[in-house]
Amino acid sequence: MTERTGTPLVEMRDICISFGGVRAVDHVSIDLYPGEVVGLLGHNGAGKSTLIKILSGAYQADSGEIFVNGEHAHIHSPRDARHYNIETIYQTLALADNLDAPANLFLGRELVNAFGFVDDAQMEAETRKIMARLNPNFQKVKEPVSALSGGQRQSVAIARAVYFNAKILIMDEPTAALGVHETKMVADLIQELKKQGLGIFLISHDTREMMELCDRVSVMKNGKLVGTERVEDVTEDDILSMIILGKNPKAAA
């Protein structure tokens, strides 16, 4: 991967937040470019999820700044984040199990016809169109999502974000509890989103997966940023050392 140039899709500068006197995120700066996947790694409590919740609007930073496409962004709620085309796909996916893919994709944002009635046919057509773009093998459009596999459910959640014009996607442990085939399905989806120019923050504990899916990885420990490195410049052992010891072997080199 070549050095990134131009304006980042999103840039978080010098972010701090404390809870009960404990600094959960301590002067952390990260950025993300179009068509790039940046992985966030660290033990539980390292601060990575808290940092991303600030970007998603779930938390508000005590200090620091966020820029989207070079412009200062004011993100105080998930609604604000969506205004900046930031969408979050949590591990739980937040899908309604009893509803099919179109109903989930448009949940709370249903399409209506000229008479003001919900337009089921149009929602199904739009769902098939976006699924054909993201996951051509997806066929179970009219089945309740409870009948879908883990990878297929991820497809529905990702399609919902992309359909509503996400440019910055936050994915929290997207392959947790998935089998090999399902994990590959999600990896293929991520590659497709990269081609379409989205930027993705990927939170995971799986260093091998991060090495395969990400362009860069950022490691946090005890609320601080240990370092951000291009995956082509580090080994899996380097990443593990950053996670465990809180030291960046590349910076010391």
Task: Kindly describe this structure.
The chain contains 9 helices and 10 strands. With 253 residues, it is an alpha/beta fold. A 6-stranded mixed beta sheet has the order 6-7-8-3-9-10, with helices on both faces. The protein has a 4-stranded antiparallel beta sheet with strand order 2-1-4-5, with helices on one face. Helix 5 (150-163) runs parallel beside helix 6 (180-195). The longest helix has 16 residues, at 180-195. The relative contact order is 0.18.
SSE layout:
Elements: E1 10-19, E2 22-32, E3 37-41, H1 48-56, E4 63-68, E5 71-73, H2 78-83, E6 86-89, H3 101-105, H4 120-134, H5 150-163, E7 168-172, H6 180-195, E8 199-203, H7 207-213, E9 216-221, E10 224-230, H8 236-245, H9 249-252
Parallel strand pairs: 3-8, 3-9, 6-7, 7-8
Antiparallel strand pairs: 1-2, 1-4, 4-5, 9-10
Helix pairs in contact: 4-5, 5-6
